Each structure stands twice: as C-alpha cells, then as structure tokens.
Amino acid sequence: MPASILVVDDMVDNVRLLNGLLDARGYEMRSATDGAQALASASAEPPDLILLDIRMPGLDGYEVCRRLKADPATADIPVVFLSAAKEPLDKIEAFAAGGVDYVTKPFEAEEVLARVSTHVALSRLRRELKQANEGLEEKVTARTAELAAANERLRREIADRIRVEQERTSLQEMLHQAQKMEAVGQLAGGVAHDFSNLLTVILGNIDIVLDRLPDQPVVRDAAAVIQDAAEQAVNVTRSLLAFARRLPCDRKKVCLQEVIKSSCKMLHRLLPSGIQVLVDTPPQPLWIDADSTQIQQIILNLAINARDAMADGGTLQLSALSDEPSPAPGSPGTRVQPPRACLVVADTGTGIPEEILPRLFEPFFSTKPRGQGTGLGLSIVHGIVENHGGAIEVQSEVGRGAVFKVWFPRIEAPTPKELAGPVPAAARGSGEVILVAEDDPFVRDTFSSVLHQLGYEVISVADGSALLDQWQADQARIRMVITDNEMPGRSGIDCSRVLRGQGATIPIVITTGTLDDDAEFRADERTVLVRKPFRMDELALLVERLLKLTDSREPSPAET
After folding, report:
1. How far is residue 475's CA from residue 467's CA, in Å, rounded to a whole number?
2. 482 shares a domain with 429
3. Do 275 and 393 sit in the same domain of this protein?
4. What are 210-229's pLDDT values in tens digits?
5. What's the DSSP call for residue 354?
6. What is the pLDDT of residues 297-333, one digit of tens each?
C-alpha cells in the first residue's frame, strides 16, 4: 500500500510542485492550504508524513505542529518543515514544536525525495514496532493469568518474558543506531558532493596553469605539488562517499601492496603514538580485481578494531602474501585451485574470547560498552570481502592478540598499456559547439575555459530548464551536452531523457558528485555518467571519443 503524504502550503504552486514530484514516486498525495485544513485532514485520516510550510495565514506551521503533537491521534505523524526561513532560530523553533526534519526552500528535488523516503520508512518501522510491543504486552497479560497453576510454569513464563523484553530492547537499540548512521551517512554524502565540485575546479585550473606556465621549474613544481595534494583529496572524497553508501563498487586491477602502503598514510593519523605500525609485503606485486577505496576501508576498520584492543599500546602489522596454485583435494592432477592474494592485519591486543568468534561479523554486535561502538565495522568488512569474491579468517586467543586474514582471487598483472593509463588529449576541437549546464559557477567556468582551450565553442547555462531552452534555440549547432546531475529544478538525468525523447542523438555527458542517482537510469554508448572530481585531460579524451562516434551518424529528427 503506498504511503500517504499531506502537503500543507498556502502557495498553490508549491503544492502542485510537491504533489507532482511525490506522485511520480508512487506516494498517495493530499494537500491543504492553511493550518485549519491541515489539522482537519490529519485528524480525519492520519497520513504517513506531513510536509509543512511555516509562514501561512491564520495558524502558522509551528502552531499546527504543536497541535498535531498534542493530539494522541496525530502525535506519531512525522512532520518535515519546508520553509524559506534560514535563520537558526527558525529551525530551533521548528524542532521544538515537534518537527523531525527541516528543508530550506528552494530545495533540490532529490534531497526532498531522499528525506521523504527515509522518514516514511522510519515512521512505518516505528508503527510496526509499537504494534509489536502492544501485541507482546497483550500476550504477557494473557499468560500472567495462567502463572498461578504451578511454580514451575511460573518460572518458565518469567523466563519467556525476560527473553522477549531483551529482544525488544535489542531491536530498539538497533533502530536507534540505524537512525544515527543514516543521519551521519547523509551528512558525509553532502560534504563529499560539495568537496567534489571544489576539487574539480582545483584540478581543472591546475591543468590550465601547468599547460600555460613558461619554463619556470620552481613555479611548475609548486603547481605540481598542489595537483598531487588535490588528487589525494579525491581519495578522501571517495572514502566519504563509500561511507555514505553513495559510491558504487569500482573494481579494476590494483596492486595489493600499493593499497596497503597508501592506507598506512591514514593510519598514522588514526592510531595513537603508542601503537607501532609495521609493514611486510613481498617484492613481487600481487594483483587483484578490486575497488581500492573499499580495500582501504577494510584496512582502516580492522586497524580501528585493533586500536581499541591495544589501549596500552602495541604493534599493528600489515602484511601481504600469496598461495600458489595447488591440486584440489580429492582430485590430484585434474583440477588446480586458483591462486589467491592475502591481506593480513595482526595486532598484539587483548584478543577475542572463543565464544565471541562465531558472532564477530554480525551487524550491530559489539563487545564495547554502550555508546562506544556501532557494531558495524566488522560486518561492513565482511560485506566488502564477499562482494569481491573473497574470504576472511580470524585467529585469536585471549591475551595473545588477533590475526585477520582476508583472501582475494589473484589476477594477471596489467599490461604496460593498462599501467600507463589514457594518453592526455591535445586540443583537437574544430569549433564544435558544446552546451554545458552546471549550477556551480566555478565548475561551469572551469569546464568552459578548458573546452575553449581545446578548440571548442561553449554555450554555458546554470540549470536544467535553461539547458532545455538553449537546446530548443540552438539544436542545429550543438554537437554535445555536458550537464551536472544535481541541479535545481531538472536533474541532468531528467534532461537527458527529455532530449532523447525529442529524438536527439548527440552525446550527453552527465557529471555527478555523489552517484546517488535514479536507479532506473542506464548509461549507453552516447549517454555517459562521469564521477566528480576528474582531471581535465580525462574530460578532453572523453569529449574527443564521443564526438568521433557521431561523425558518421544520421541526423536526428530534432536536427532535420
């Protein structure tokens, strides 16, 4: 059954916008244009969620929310404030009135959809938990009348009740922890999105500076240092996105030893001075098919786990080893086990009790005191290892530390061409017109400067609506569209669908800082999704390749 949402706003256009946006996602929509209507509608048929404006004639949003919370029939309905008021006191009053969230107008459609989805899911989960609790209480009450039959039966019933109460408490704690992790994940994803735009600007302009600098070694070296620092910051951004679960697995050929060395740089900032980090890796590179960011996350999670087990200091050793092919048991000479590479993380900490080992990778299971651990670190490690087709082993004794061995299938070493990567593109443009849509002015200016330098003519706009308007005006000239996905109004994916629906066959490049995109979107040969941040020479190569694809194309209906 679809979730029902009540939109309360005295501006009819805002009501229509929200109704259309949420109706398209399958929600059951109702609306009210003032506080009295909202209270009456919510009381008559309580919705799953209320989107509430603040400034309205008669009852304002704060008073409406207070009255909703004062009525037992509507007190549990989550209220999300949508308002143009940006002052901290406005937000404080909104939360004091009982609101669960606050979105500032003008808002981004994807942000509202994400928050609505989260709060609807949490609301339903709370309701189910409440119903479960009520059912449990009824069951306990019914059974209490039977306890007088015998003392033995009394003891059994008490034991059952204690177990049920413990399970309920555990479920409540898991729900609270999930809520906190969701909030932290949303914050991390938002920070990473803004940071990606900044890094795109830095990397793009450094490319321009290095290309135009005269032969001044000192200045060029300084610019190169800035470029290296920005590229390291890219890895930090990808780690944030991985934490926020807004970054898909990007597997490629990586050297396990190089990932270990790269992780050590971050470990020195995470571990106290009393913990010594040792690295022991073989000289022969061990190549695996993996997402290097997720492998670093495995190392960091295991290192943090080890740190907590070495409160008085100790040694953390990171190693890499391999096992060579060997005949499979039971069939010597006929089948060979594939070679594997192993990441070893060992510590000299307190060790793990034997009875805890079977539960070590369960979500939310933690041996730390309440409030000092999430119980998610090792479960995340286990999930990453399984997604990479690997296996994880644990060896530990109390007082003798712990050894985690993470096995990955080994692959052949990359060719010299693969190691070299793409060759930077030269300025191959011949005046082709490229339409750039980007709401961040610094990123927009950087794209325009680089593409002009490469010999292209650039038309730049600031949002999706302007992109579609410009296409209607200049579609006969435009050879390519480069658009950000997270823009006010229409997203880049939405614009690409409109253009394809109108018969446009030109290449479309959609850039994104989070990849928290439409699950139904599918890239193809001429519609490409690119992660921010990226180097400008990568953009140049992509533009050149896509334009070559269309050199011999048939004119689209929109171009004839």
Report:
1. 11
2. yes
3. yes
4. 666 666 676 667 766 676 66
5. T
6. 889 888 988 898 898 899 999 999 987 655 545 444 4
